[in-house]
Design a protein that fits this description.
Layout: H1 24-33, E1 42-43, H2 45-52, H3 56-68, E2 72-74, E3 81-83, H4 86-91, H5 98-115, E4 118-125, E5 128-135, E6 151-152, H6 158-165, H7 169-177, H8 191-204, E7 207-210, E8 217-225, E9 231-240, H9 241-244, E10 245-246, E11 249-250, H10 253-267
Antiparallel strand pairs: 1-3, 2-3, 4-5, 4-9, 5-6, 7-8, 8-9, 10-11
Helix pairs in contact: 1-3, 2-3, 5-10, 6-8
Length: 268
């Protein structure tokens, strides 16, 4: 639930420091940037203000600043706002996932060629599954549910649930205690059911997601380990159910597991 924005106290500057040492204006600017999602990349002023828990005046001023920094664009026709290509420049210096992403790219491409499915590489970030790698397969169907840089809730989709299953126990309990929103009617949102699902994932080493991110699409996910056995990511494939599952079993599991062993040796 979105909380109403609080009023700025008289005499206090909008960019003033917070008790925790952070700068309010910077936090608000990031709240605006995070308002944009895969499903609605173009937003009106009022929607951005609501999602960022800010009043429209403050939101407009921050949007103007972000536009001058080439991080936000505004449509001349609709007057809606969207993220600018300048956001990509910020990601150019990203280093923590660079090694994994670069070493995984040929593996993802090989999986896409062998299965014909769209392949994703996801990592845990800020209580969500962040896509850092993607290769489209040869299937005619186009999958737009998870682009590079996109976030998906950890309880939705095979890859995200694999990530969630391998978080520390205390962290899993914290995540399960948070509100769990459904992406489709098939999204598992009951903490007790999810607890059983996550235990099963850890036991068998893979997960299926049937219509729980996009209705009509099925995903198969497996963990990415480093040489020490720690889970550092998840690779998943997605496509029509008949292409991912056959006779109640995942069709391409052996390919994914073999490629994950290769990737573990490459990552180190």
């Amino acid at each position: 639930m979105i909380k109403p924005a609080g009023r700025i106290r008289s005499g206090r500057r909008a960019g003033a420091g917070e008790p925790d040492g952070s700068v309010r204006a910077v936090r608000r600017a990031f709240a605006i940037l995070r308002a944009f999602r895969l499903t609605d990349r173009s937003l009106a002023l009022g929607e951005i203000a609501q999602r960022a828990s800010l009043d429209k005046g403050t939101t407009r001023r921050l949007l103007m600043t972000l536009m001058r920094e080439h991080l936000i664009d505004q449509s001349a026709e609709t007057k809606n706002y969207s993220l600018s290509l300048g956001v990509l420049e910020l990601g150019a210096g990203l280093t923590p996932c660079d090694d994994l992403r670069q070493r995984a790219q040929p593996v993802l491409a090989a999986i896409a060629e062998a299965t014909g499915a769209t392949v994703f590489l996801g990592v845990f970030h800020d209580d969500a599954a962040l896509c850092i790698g993607r290769v489209d397969g040869g299937q005619a169907i186009q999958i737009r549910s998870w682009s590079i840089g996109g976030r998906i809730p950890l309880h939705c989709g095979a890859g995200p649930r694999v990530l969630m299953a391998h978080r520390p126990e205390s962290e899993r309990q914290r995540l399960l205690a948070q509100p769990l929103e459904a992406m489709t009617p098939a999204s598992p949102c009951d903490p007790k059911v999810l607890t059983e699902i996550l235990a099963q994932i850890r036991e068998r080493g893979w997960e299926l997601g049937v219509g729980d991110v996009v209705e009509g699409l099925t995903s198969l996910g497996v963990p990415v380990h480093d040489r020490n056995g720690a889970v550092i990511g998840a690779v998943s494939i997605s496509g029509l159910h008949s292409h991912i599952v056959e006779g109640g079993r995942p069709r391409h599991l052996a390919i994914l597991q073999r490629k994950m062993r290769e990737l573990a040796n490459a990552v180190g």
